[in-house]
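Researcher: Let's do a round of design. I'm pasting the structure tokens now; please hold your answer until I've finished.
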């Protein structure tokens, strides 16, 4: 069943949107405290804001962001924080304005994201910027415009982070149609049937899609003999690769409606230059993955884990993974970071820490202090 991308989207928040919002919410508060240490004012941009509230009473991203900021400010925050929420639809804009009017640090802007890029770009030269980009489909995304902001990572050396909802599924369908290739029917075994823009209303153009992702690189992927789910994944991988040119730490989280789906509704893609940001995002996305995995829990408890390791990673493999990252004496913090980089969204940071502590207790690892309770700066190594 198709769902039109219109204001009725905001009648009720869907389960995967809740998981997405939890990731945003869990990340923001620690982000604010960490980034405040850089002493620059902070700007959070909700580039595709919506009305702020869903019909069922759930907060939308503008309110989630404003409440986080309000909470830290109420405790005496060391740097100014402002929030910019962008929404073109007149009706949604009016509701948005109303939703956030009690937050003096927040401003609703009516228009499209690209119309405010110049303003954001200017602010990025003096502010730490967190960009939340959450469109319905891929329309409204313009890679070259986003690049104008990202370049400040090098030009002004300010902190910029991006959390992007990339709808690779929608992009793949539009791309196939634009290339006059067969668009596969939506398969209930592999993907959610409530696709937000199932009927492609305006005929997609190659030029528009090039603008969305900043080049023609997607065309060989869609023309290749890969399966449809593989093409969708490859598009997301290549978006990550492109972000990696700007951001040292890039990660992705496939947002699936159901655990058995191989085609996610969309990917949440995050870019930052701070390793700590990757660790925080890992933990938020691990939590999201566990909520999804819970949907596949058997009704009656079983002795062994019956769900696939792609859904429920085997914690028993963690010590071996940790050991692989201790070929030479290495700070605990670096080991944890490298485990997360290699196995993103599988294990929470505290689980990795716990595994290291257990290995120290069991003598499978040694620490330079000789203690089992250590901090991230202490080197760990394999015993001779
Ligand atoms: C998926 S919804 C956003 C939901 C919101 N982030 C939340 O969690 O509550 C996408 C929103 O982007 C708006 N929109 C559409 N085109 C846009 C554009 N070019 N620039 C900014 N916003 C746009 C739509 O009107 C819609 O409200």
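Researcher: That's everything. Go ahead.
Model: Designed sequence:
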């Amino acid at each position: 069943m198709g769902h039109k991308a219109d204001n009725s989207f905001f009648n009720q928040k869907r389960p995967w949107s809740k998981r997405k919002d939890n990731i945003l919410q869990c990340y923001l508060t620690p982000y604010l405290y960490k980034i405040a240490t850089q002493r620059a004012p902070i700007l959070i941009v909700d580039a595709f804001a919506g009305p702020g509230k869903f019909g069922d009473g759930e907060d939308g991203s503008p309110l989630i962001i404003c409440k986080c900021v309000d909470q830290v400010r109420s405790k005496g925050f060391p740097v100014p924080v402002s929030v910019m929420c962008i929404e073109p639809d007149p009706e949604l804009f009016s509701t948005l304005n109303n939703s956030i009017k009690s937050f003096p640090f927040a401003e609703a802007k009516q228009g499209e994201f690209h119309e405010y890029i110049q303003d954001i770009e200017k602010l990025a030269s003096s502010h730490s910027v967190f960009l939340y980009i959450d469109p319905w489909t891929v329309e409204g995304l313009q890679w070259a415009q986003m690049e104008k902001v990202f370049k400040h990572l090098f030009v002004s050396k300010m902190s910029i982070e991006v959390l992007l909802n990339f709808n690779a599924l929608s992009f793949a369908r539009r791309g196939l149609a634009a290339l006059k290739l067969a668009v596969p029917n939506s398969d209930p075994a592999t993907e959610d049937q409530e696709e937000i823009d199932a009927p492609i209303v305006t005929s997609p153009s190659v030029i528009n899609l090039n603008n969305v992702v900043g080049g023609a690189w997607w065309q060989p992927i869609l023309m290749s003999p890969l399966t449809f789910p593989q093409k969708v994944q490859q598009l997301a991988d290549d978006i990550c690769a492109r972000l990696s040119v700007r951001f040292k730490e890039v990660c992705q989280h496939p947002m699936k409606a159901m655990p058995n789906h191989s085609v996610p509704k969309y990917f949440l893609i995050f870019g930052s230059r701070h390793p700590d940001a990757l660790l925080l995002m890992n933990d938020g996305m691990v939590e999201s993955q566990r909520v999804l995995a819970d949907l596949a829990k058997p009704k009656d408890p079983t002795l062994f884990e019956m769900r696939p390791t792609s859904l429920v990673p085997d914690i028993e493999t963690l010590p071996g993974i940790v050991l692989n990252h201790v070929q030479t004496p290495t700070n605990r913090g670096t080991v944890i970071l490298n485990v997360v980089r290699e196995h993103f969204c599988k294990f929470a940071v505290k689980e990795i820490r716990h595994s290291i502590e257990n290995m120290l207790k069991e003598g499978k690892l040694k620490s330079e202090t000789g203690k089992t309770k250590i901090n991230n700066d202490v080197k760990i190594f394999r015993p001779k």
